[in-house]
Design goal:
alpha+beta, 5-stranded mixed beta sheet, globular, binds arginine, binds zinc ion, zinc ion binding, aminopeptidase
């Protein structure tokens, strides 16, 4: 059944307090809850509690056990009649559940012998009958009872209030969380876990215990997570004035987890991928991922927990805002330009295709079948861009005033995005009336640029026109911040001579109309406009620029993001032209080679920036610019270009490789930046096709003391068939087979290999003893990486790639529908391919729709993919 935002109604009853007792057992687990309820709607006659996959043992109202005839239970609800005069009452509900059989990893489940929970969005209803909706906020007291030897660690939200051994020998612990919260923020963990402890003193002088729980043996891999946590706590105090509000903050790492992590109040549960790291086992990218996810979950304590969502249509209220905050944090901790480039790369890779395809939705969807399908790149990443635009329009100071008012006005409440925008307006004094359209508009806006220069008057006219392919007839222009600057023909900034940015080199202009012209007077020669600096809006730009124009910005723009982006646009244009020519050996234009040479020679740049600037757009990025995607041509031409660049600058790459390997890096260059550039050089050297460089990768792998260099060596060799490649992959498996996260990389690299045996390799890997569909990380590292990261073989002509994916979807539909549904999106892109592939892809979607016991999750994704 489809659920609509317009149907939202306040709850008929509220829950004031919950007393939960969870008796953990090997055969089953018994959950007893006492709910203290209050009437919220005078007319309500029935109370309908959510509950799924539960066995109801008993229910009592105000102390009297109810007869079976006095309530109704179906697969989704427990419904009671409530007499009209009853205002406040309590219920005692006992249910039986089987966490050890829970493969969906929602609600209470077991992972590696430990109990843990995932309740967002609607997992709590798999634990007990409840009003499982975010606008019902209650104070939770949780008692956990279980075998003290099996489960010496027993955790829940809030502060520990009691701990004892019962007369039967079992252990009982009680946790109390004073902050009223929705059930989706509930968490429980029990197991034989190791703990790493630290502390943080808040700016008001309170001492907070910080504890990270991991499987035994992983204690030495928590340092980076702990440091990241402390940095996050400090940053939120300084940047947003937000202090932590309990005496203890806990993080638990689990190896079976559907998503990245979860912000449960005071007890964050993490996919171990985002906690565990040492230089030997984790790449620099893994370290960055940990820093940002730890920050993200911590920041949710204010943006998500203290102020939560009224209903799930408001998801971007907490997710868009919190992603924006974690991006700001990472930009402050690292190179801001490199961070921004990464943010935009992720947006373009995942969100742009979503927004252009059958699963497009506004950041605030208007309807859904299964809410778990809406934890999307649009709600998260585009949602973050929307907050960033508010930040850009308001400026730092007014944005902070708006946020202050938001926290002041809504602390302790479950609110809507409308209330958020109003608070930002109220606090800043800036009118966001038109800006609100971003929340309800699907599709990526396209901006077409027209420039005119009048030699006689020295006047430059810049005209921008908005359109949106998804908007159709009811197109309404959006309020778009345009950060821009003008350059003279030498690349020098031209200061604005009038208006609000007079004397400045860069300013933010408001685009509010469908077509808008900005006039700049007093210019001697036609200026060059650097538009949407820092990617000031999540749009596509349509601007006539030839190779020389783009090379100019690539070499000169003072805005590093636009400098990088000009290089990407240049490379994209060139590759698309080579594809048209059907000639991957045609020489790359000199303008491009020269621009490349300039960046290669510039030693002042952050090496991570240089690496990003010297990396060609990915195959999927190029694909987005083709009317009909030709995966084979893209791969061939892009590889041809890499080979030419490798050969042309062979000497420079060797020099860079040596310079960046040298331990004595310049002080302003983080080690990770040097590794990034060194490994970029390595891939170009391998691209020359010369045997020497296979040897170089071999030596790098064998000498490496860190996972970044090891993986880079393997990745550089993954596409070739060569004894060195086979030897290194075998060595890696041997060496790391006991470390799941490290072996995930082994599966992933092979899933992304582009070589004749790939399909057979992927099938063989699915039969590998270390492969299992039950562990989401392992599944994603092979199947997810293959379907989303290997366009050439996923789209292989025979359709075998599609069949592999739909087979996995069918299997997971039964065991873990949430994860199964996430795999459908690549098939949903079928309209982008040739007729033959379209036929093969839609055939798999049809097959999926005919699966017996099709879950709502998979149904919604496959149905929309086929018919929208
Ligand atoms: N709120 C979590 C985060 O963004 C994500 C949880 C999503 N879980 C789910 N089952 N959809 O940090
Ligand atoms: Zn989040």
């Amino acid at each position: 059944a489809t659920i609509y935002l317009k149907d939202y109604k306040e709850p008929d009853f509220l829950i004031k307090t919950v007393d939960l007792t969870v008796e953990l057992g090997e055969a089953d687990t018994i959950v007893t809850s006492r709910l203290d309820l209050a009437r919220n709607n005078a007319a309500a006659k029935k109370l309908s509690l959510n509950g799924e996959y539960l066995e109801l043992v008993s229910v009592a109202m105000d102390g009297r056990t109810l007869e079976a005839a006095e309530y109704e239970v179906d697969g989704k609800h427990l419904t009671l009649n409530i007499p009209a005069k009853t205002d406040g009452f309590h219920l005692d509900i006992k249910t039986r559940i089987k966490p050890q059989e829970n493969t969906a990893l929602e609600g209470l489940y077991k992972s590696s012998g430990n109990f843990c929970t995932q309740c967002e969005a609607q997992g709590f209803r798999r634990i007990t009958y409840y009003l499982d909706r975010p606008d019902v906020m209650a104070v939770f007291t949780t008692t956990i009872i279980g075998d003290a030897t099996r489960y010496p660690v027993m955790l829940s939200n809030g502060n520990l209030t009691a701990e004892k051994i019962l007369s039967d020998g079992r252990k009982s612990v009680t946790w109390h969380d004073p902050h009223p919260k929705p059930a989706y923020l509930f968490a429980l963990v029990a197991g034989d876990l190791a703990m790493v402890e630290d502390s943080f003193t808040t700016r008001s002088g309170r001492d907070i215990k910080l504890r990270i729980f991991v499987e035994k043996g992983n204690e030495d891999k928590c340092g980076h997570a702990m440091t990241s946590l402390k940095k996050s706590m400090k940053w939120d105090e300084e940047k947003y004035g937000r202090e932590y509000d309990l005496d203890i903050f806990m993080i638990v790492a689990v190896s079976d987890f559907n998503m990245g992590a979860m912000e449960n109040k005071g007890l964050n549960v993490f996919n171990s991928k985002y906690v565990l790291a040492s230089p030997e086992t984790a790449t620099d990218a893994d370290f960055d991922g940990i820093e940002s996810v730890i920050a993200h979950e911590y920041f949710h304590n204010w943006t998500g927990n203290r102020i939560t969502c009224r209903d799930w249509f408001q998801l971007t209220l907490k997710e868009g805002l919190t992603v924006f905050r974690d991006q700001q944090f990472s930009a402050d901790m690292n190179s801001a330009a490199v961070q921004r480039i990464g943010d935009v790369q992720r947006l373009r890779a995942a969100q742009f295709p979503e927004d252009a395809g059958p699963l497009a939705h506004p950041i605030q969807p208007q309807s859904y079948v299964e809410i778990n399908n809406f934890y999307t790149a649009t709600v998260y990443e585009k949602g973050a861009e929307v907050i960033r635009m508010i930040h850009t329009l308001l400026g730092e100071e007014k944005f902070r005033k708006g946020m202050d008012l938001y926290f002041e006005r809504h602390d302790g409440q479950a609110v809507t995005t409308e209330e958020f925008v109003s608070a930002l307006e109220g606090g800043s004094g800036v009118d966001l009336t038109q800006f609100r359209r971003w929340y309800v508009t699907p599709g990526t806006p396209e901006i077409t640029v027209n420039e005119k220069f009048d030699e006689k008057t020295g006047t430059y006219k810049l005209t921008l026109q908005q359109s949106n392919a998804k908007a159709g007839a009811d197109f309404k222009p959006l309020h778009i911040p345009l950060r821009m600057g003008l350059l003279d023909e030498n690349g020098k900034a031209i200061a604005f001579t009038e208006g609000p940015f007079k004397g400045k080199n860069s300013g933010v202009f408001d685009l509010t109309k469908k077509r808008e012209t900005f006039t700049f007077a007093g210019l001697k020669s036609p200026p060059r406009a650097s538009l949407f600096r820092g990617f000031s809006a999540p749009i596509k730009i349509n601007q006539q620029m030839d190779d020389r124009d783009l090379a100019f910005f690539f070499a000169k723009d003072e805005d590093l993001f636009n400098r990088w982006d000009a290089g990407q646009r240049l490379a994209n244009n060139i590759i698309l032209k080579q594809i048209e020519k059907q000639d991957e050996t045609a020489a790359l234009p000199e303008a491009f080679m020269e621009a490349f040479a300039d960046i290669l020679a510039d030693k002042d740049l952050d090496r991570a920036f240089t690496a990003a600037a010297l990396t060609l757009p990915g195959e999927q990025d190029i694909a987005q610019k083709m009317p009909v995607v030709d995966v084979d041509a893209i791969h061939k031409v892009r590889e041809g270009a890499r080979r030419q660049i490798g050969l042309r600058f062979e000497e420079e790459w060797r020099r860079l490789y040596d310079e960046c390997s040298c331990a004595a890096a310049p002080a302003n260059q983080p080690e990770s930046s040097s590794r990034k550039l060194k490994n970029t050089a390595l891939t170009y050297l391998i691209a020359t096709g010369k045997e020497d460089y296979v040897g170089l990768a071999d030596r790098q792998y064998r000498a490496s003391d860190n996972m970044t260099d090891s993986v880079a060596a393997l990745s550089g060799l993954k596409d070739i068939t060569h004894p060195v490649r086979e030897a290194l992959f075998a060595d890696y498996y041997d060496k790391w087979q006991k470390d799941a996260l490290v072996i995930d990389k082994w599966f992933m690299l092979q899933a992304m290999a582009v070589r004749a045996s790939t399909i057979a390799d992927v099938k063989a890997l699915m039969d590998h003893p270390a492969f299992t569909l039950r562990n989401p990380n392992r599944m994603r590292s092979l199947i997810g990486a293959f379907a989303s990261g290997n366009p050439v073989y996923f789209h292989e002509r025979s359709g075998e790639g599609y069949r592999i994916l739909s087979g996995v979807i069918a299997a997971l539909n039964k065991t873990n529908p949430q994860i199964a549904a996430r795999l459908v999106a690549p098939l949903g892109q079928w309209r982008r391919y040739d007729a033959e592939r379209q036929g093969l892809m839609t055939a798999e979607l049809e097959k999926i729709l005919k699966l017996p016991d099709l879950s709502d999750h998979v149904y919604e994704m496959a149905n929309k993919s086929l018919h929208n």
